[in-house]
Design goal:
The complex is a heterodimer of chains A (122) and B (110). Chain A is mainly β and 122 residues long. Helix content of chain A is 0%, strand content 52%. Chain B has 110 residues and is mainly β. In chain B, 0% of the residues lie in helices and 49% in strands. Classes of the chains: A mainly beta (122), B mainly beta (110). Chains A and B meet through strand 4, strand 5, strand 9 and strand 10 of A and strand 4 of B.
């Protein structure tokens, strides 16, 4: 239980292009999904929180027009990095928080993380 | 959110028990304690969560004293593959966010 996937796992793009990253909760419904960014040798930094069907809430200093988040269903959230620049190169990680599964394999209200997406902007 | 303090790094040898202690002096009544493990270039993996006393699962134990101002993650008989960064976090069950500290880099030596 508690499987969260991300796609792609790695992406290399040219400066100025847009990149979309998908985050899926595979075996539970995620009422809330989170997007984090992690630079080398540093801890995770929360970028934004999204609830299904509503607008994302961005942390201070994160540009909402640059990092577009869509949470269209209880199992899917997407992060689009628009007009990417080399300074956007980082490790992007999503997490999903659910209320539980019928099999009881997840801890309610606990965040489960995806494997991450390595973005490199040339 | 309650701030946590944990050692930056720890070394251990294969087969030993490892205890990582985290302090969270301003933990609130309805806060829980959660530990995650992260390998390089991977997302954090949930290890264990507890509120008080002791919690045990198939990979670790979590000891929380009565005052709840600290907690100890115990990893029995570590192996080389347990080398990772371990994060201690304090959160309310309905918290909007997790705030990650610097974590503890555990290195298991042969």
């Amino acid at each position: 239980g508690a499987v969260v996937s991300q796609h792609p796992s790695r992406v290399i793009c040219k400066s100025g292009t847009s990149v979309k990253i998908e985050c899926r909760s595979l075996d539970f419904q995620a009422t809330t999904m989170f997007w984090y960014r992690q630079f080398p040798k540093q801890s995770l930094m929360l970028m934004a929180t999204s609830n299904e069907g509503s607008k994302a809430t961005y942390e201070q200093g994160v540009e909402k027009d640059k990092f577009l988040i869509n949470h269209a269903s209880l199992t899917l959230s997407t992060l689009t990095v628009t007009s990417a620049h080399p300074e956007d190169s980082s490790f992007y990680i999503c997490s999903a928080r659910g209320t539980g599964t019928p099999s009881g394999t997840i801890v309610p209200d606990t965040q489960y993380f995806g494997p991450g997406t390595r973005l490199t902007v040339l | 959110l309650a701030k946590t303090t944990q050692p930056i790094s720890m070394d251990s040898y294969e087969g030993q028990e490892v205890n990582i202690t985290c302090s969270h002096n301003n933990i609130a009544t309805n806060d829980y304690i959660t530990w995650y493990q992260q390998f390089p270039s991977q997302g954090p993996r949930f290890i264990i969560q507890g509120y008080k006393t002791k919690v045990t699962n198939e990979v670790a134990s979590l000891f929380i004293p009565a005052d709840r101002k600290s907690s100890t993650l115990s990893l029995p008989r570590v192996s080389l593959s347990d080398t990772a960064v371990y994060y201690c976090l304090v959160l309310k069950r309905s918290a909007r966010q997790l705030t990650f500290g610097s974590g503890t880099q555990l290195t298991v030596l042969p």
